[in-house]
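[job 4471] stage=fold_predict status=RUNNING
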Amino acid sequence: MSAPRLAIGHCRNVLERSGSSFASAFRILPKDQRDAMTAFYAFCREVDDAVDEAPDKASGRTRIGEWRANVERLYLGDFANPVCEALGWAVRAFGIRREHVELVLDGVQQDLSFARFETFGELHEYCYRVAAAVGLVCVTVMGAQDSEAELYAELTGTAVQLTNIIRDVGEDAGLGRIYLPAEDLRAFGVTERDILDRRATPQLRALFGFEAARARHLYDLAAAALPPKAGGKLFFAEALRDTYSRLLDRLVESDLDVFADRVRVSRLEKLGIALKHRLRVPGLLRTAEP
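[job 4471] inference complete, writing structure tokens
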């Protein structure tokens, strides 16, 4: 089953315009897997942009409803736009489950009606929707569809999202948002005003250290959950885990000064990590298309 050339081309344009580092990372994938992940990325980007650019929350909810209808249609073979056509091909070619695609919509909808998380359990549920969904689609496209692979995807996605939350505390504070659980703030004697006013107090640094240790533990659990029988199938997912683990290291090296300049892993480093994992898979370089 050949990918729809024009629809995939449209998705590639969405990916390139986004400036995402995934544009480089996807290049290490064999062609069909690369096209499928590009289609899924374009879907995530289009949904996110449609809501972000909505003039008000009511319009945002309407747009999410429209995308839910689009997803229902694409699973029936009816495509509302090029992104849906490309994603519909990926769904048929790789068996991507509808519930995993709809998790993206659930996560965007939760952001639209943002409310503080009281417990880590509530934060974990959010992370599952917005990040584990990507991991679940990724392991499916890479041919590892079982409960072990899904656990690996969930742990990796949660670790990645928590890393992003730690890094973006200052940026989110500027938007009046705090994603860290309220129970953790209380445990460390931190107030919401400390974060919103960007006060780098010792208590706040201790809180960030705790969250970083939690993220590190999740990365370690994901590594332990990597299904042995998957062999080299999950090399791309492993590259993503390695990249964001490196980002967490950088945050810790910066003394978790999340109110200073944004901490990054360079594009060259990301590409190097991706190539390292690809080279570990025997025969992949010979079989993958450029």
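[job 4471] summary: The CA atoms of residues 100 and 133 lie 6 Å apart.
[job 4471] exit 0
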